[in-house]
Amino acid sequence: MTTDHDEHQEVSVRHRHTLTRLLAATALALPLALPATPAAAAPTATPTRQLDDVIPAPVETRPDPRGTFTLSPLTVIRTTPHSAAARQIGRQLADTLRPATGYPLPVLPVPATPLPEIALLIGGAGSRVGQEGYQLDVTRHRVTIRANTPAGLFAGTQTLRQLLPAQIEAAQRQRTTWAVPGGRIIDYPRFAYRGAMLDLARHFHTVPEIKTYIDLLSQYKINYLHLHLSDDQGWRIQIDSWPRLTTVGGGPGTGVDGVGPGYLTKDDYKAVTAYAAARQITIVPEIDMPGHTNAAQSTYAELNCDGVAPPPRTDIAVGYSSLCIDDELTYRFVEDVIRELAEITPGPYLHVGGDEAHATTDEEYATFMRRVLPLVNKYGKRAYGWNEVMQVDPASDVIAQYWGTGTTNADLAEAVARGNKVVMSPANKAYLDMKYDRNTPLGLSWAAYIEVRDAYDWDPAQRVTGVGEDALLGVEAPLWSETLRSIDDIEYMAFPRLPAIAELGWSTAASHDWESFRARLGEQAPRWRLQQVNYYPSPQVTWS
Ligand code: ACM
After folding, report:
1. What pLDDT shows up at residue 14?
2. Angle of helix 514-522 relative to helix 497-506, nearest 10 degrees?
3. pLDDT tens profile 490-528
4. Distance of CA 187 to CAs 58, 61, 194, Å?
5. What does the domain layout of the chain look like in residue ranges?
6. Helices (H), 42-196
7. How far is C-alpha 410 from the geometric centre of its chain's CA atoms?
8. Are 254 and 244 in contact (CB under 8 A)?
9. Does the beta carbon of 355 sit less than 6 angstroms from any atom of ligand 1?
10. 224 in ligand 1 pocket by Cβ < 6 Å?
């Protein structure tokens, strides 16, 4: 292994001139003259954090008390040369660290610098960390994050953020010592799919609100955001071939109690997917069908078997609506929607809902799903649905999202035996819209009260008989919006339970430990306060 010191000796002279030019080009008023010899490490500081003070818990940490790194006005962020992705992640990290530190933190795509640096490197991370993991090394002279992919590198930067004092999240310059604990972290996820869901149908949430949620999710290594885009109360995505879906179905007076109107234009949706992608999050769009369709059916009379449009609905009942299964027009409608949505969706999945189709017989449901699931493939996407979809014995590439509260489900277990993959979202564990306890002012309670420990203390691979580790694509924390209007409402239900589900998705089953999680969670609170996150201060946690 090359020592930190040797690396400095080797690179300092060779790259000084490049660096000088780059620094000049950044036009940042750096209060420095480049030293002729390697920069002295900042005075030894005592880190306030430890390598394992991170959510989700890292796979492996090896502390080195001699290796404390301290951010200083001289620190540069160095990224893999010729890698636009690494440079972009470097810029994001600089944007995160500049307000509180007040340091210039120039981002330099050079092979080496003589300065104290945060090196963000794609390549050379070793196969163990896989496609989404990273290796983070902290010595006195530098922090180095190595990953095989941009996703892994981004994940490493989120860990680094949590290794800095909480004041790093402040919007104004703070007087503190920015120490990062020394040593090595090797980290990679347990599951490929670590999701959250936001319901835009019951109350619409705006693009800035969705972006705020994405910012919060990305800190906990969530990599999928499922958007529930249609339901009985509202239709929230522009479809050009059926234009009144949004102007009427998502228009004034829609949403629960008539106070959740709005929709995403295609440009809005593209902006959200791009914003998410820059934070290594893939959007999963859902159009719920054949039930949960009153907004579409009240907008277009021809989508009803009797040709009569029902009134719009602003209540929270479920299970009464259904597309007309035996009408060819239904499939033209569904194909138009899937085609247009697939066209603007860069991610691999398209969710077709399929839950609570109580106004449809089992035969009708099977007829519908057997026509619709292949349409998703026709437009280049992989079909995904709530677990009821498994009743129709779909092709083995269809993904089931389990939302039940029980520990057995024969259709799901049989689907798993045939090779279908599952995302675990048991409503009595993972639903972020369930009240914490009977006094919670927001949310519902039909599945359970879910305190933080309830959200954390379960194993996705031991939840449903016959649905083990190998069957799981991952976990997801859905947030339904019947009672939620604002981003403050969203945050109150998601925090602190979202980090619990994020840890179930990322960290090893062996590391699962309530007392450890509880302690780490309590330490997140100062960050949330500085980020103005409206969290629920659960009495189960000792909040810093
Ligand atoms: C659901 O909660 N109906 C998926």
Report:
1. 36
2. 130
3. 999 999 999 999 999 999 999 999 999 999 999 999 999
4. 5, 8, 15
5. 47-187, 193-530
6. 84-101, 150-163
7. 30
8. no
9. yes
10. no
Q: CA 172, CA 28: separation in Å to the nearest integer?
A: 19
Q: What is the pLDDT of residue 43?
A: 56
Measure 478 CA to ligand 1 centroid, in angstroms.
9
Distance 403 CA to ligand 1 centre (A): 6
Residue with tokens 């009495």: 539
| Per-residue pLDDT band at 46 (split at 50, 70, 90) | confident
Q: Which residues contact 36 (CB under 8 A, 6 or more apart)?
A: none
Rounded Cα–Cα distance for residues 287 and 501 (Å):
24
Distance (Å) from CA 36 to ligand 1 centroid: 64
Q: What is the pTM of this model?
A: 0.93
Handedness of CA 449, 453, 459, 462 (dihedral sign): negative
Q: Check if 47-187 and 193-530 are the same fold.
A: no
Q: In CATH, what class is 47-187?
A: alpha beta
Q: 193-530: what CATH class?
A: alpha beta
Q: Among this protein's residues, is 117 annotated catalytic?
A: no
503 close to ligand 1 (CB < 6 Angstrom)? no
User: Residue with the nearest Cα to atom 3 of ligand 1?
Assistant: 355
Please tell me the least confidently modeled range out of 15-24, 190-199, 231-240, 408-417: 15-24
Q: Please indicate whether residue 386, judged by its CB atom, sits closer than 6 Å to ligand 1.
A: yes
